[in-house]
Design a protein that fits this description.
4 helices; 4 strands; two-stranded antiparallel sheet; mainly alpha; rod-shaped
Length: 161
């Protein structure tokens, strides 16, 4: 049987050829697969800054053979994360501004309550006819004792001279 020995040699050569091809492909010399464009429509979502809850409620993700299309889900989650991050930053800035405004109001109230109610407001200029106030800041007019023992204003004393 002359053909039995040839079959054995033919099988050995075929096995070596397959082994050679596997080694070449594993080393990267076998070429590359082409990348195909996705066969799903693009997501109909606005920019991350304009996303609303209605956009997510109306969203219909494309379905593939084994479930939702992974790339579409990943893109949607990335947009949602970006939108939430931007809103968190905006909220933190607004909360900081509110805290600064409240602190300023509290400071103004403390300053106004620390000043005596009869004391003039230091931001308002004094009127021409107002008597001068004492340097202690209590808003009381300067007085000097009269020669007869009664207290009078300096302006009255100066007028009398």
């Amino acid at each position: 049987m002359w053909h039995d020995s040839y079959v054995l040699v033919l099988l050995a050569v075929a096995a070596l050829a397959v082994l050679y091809c596997v080694v070449m492909v594993s080393q990267g010399r076998g070429g590359e697969l082409t990348e195909f464009a996705p066969d799903v429509p693009p997501l109909d979502l606005p920019d991350p800054g304009q996303l609303t809850a209605v956009d997510f409620m109306a969203l219909q993700l494309p379905v593939s053979l084994v479930g939702y299309h992974t790339q579409s889900v990943d893109e949607t989650l990335q947009r949602a994360a970006t939108a939430i991050g931007e809103r968190d930053t905006h909220i933190a800035v607004l909360e900081q501004r509110v805290a600064e405004l409240l602190a300023g109001r509290l400071q103004a109230r403390r300053e106004s309550s620390a000043r005596a109610p009869w004391a003039p407001d230091p931001s308002e200029p004094a009127a021409e006819g107002d008597p001068p106030t004492d340097p202690s800041g209590f808003g009381l007019p300067d007085r000097e004792p009269a020669p007869n023992g009664a207290d009078t204003d300096r302006s009255e004393t100066e007028d009398a001279r």
